[in-house]
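protien #1 (seq + structre)
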Amino acid sequence: MAEKEFTLEELKKYDGQNGNKAYVAIDGVVYDMTDVEPWKGGKHHGNVAGQDLSEVIPHAPHKKTVLPKLPIVGKLVK
């Protein structure tokens, strides 16, 4: 199966609200945060799913160490 491509506009639909999945993009990769407990409801420490968080992750306490544990659902295209 080909990797799904998301535009920023499409990614916004995956905000974790009202039954939507919670996806975030980091460095061009789109991750599924839906089943990650701290991301329940599409929010985590002031960040909201459905966005490109590439600029935010370097400031997170865990940095990018959590990324290998997350399911990848596609890539972000600009």
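ok now protien #2
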Amino acid sequence: MKVLLQRFVKEEHGSTALEYGLIAAGLSIAIVTVLTQVGLTLSRLKAASASAGN
């Protein structure tokens, strides 16, 4: 049992995939946040220009 536990701790093949998954998740959260802010800014500009034109 001790040998199996030591082998499991030393295993690194799955950790690389997990790290790439975490990086991808972090990047997707950042992209969604930026795009949401850009969309809100554009809608505020549109509303401001519409009210200025009246």
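The mean pLDDT is 88.
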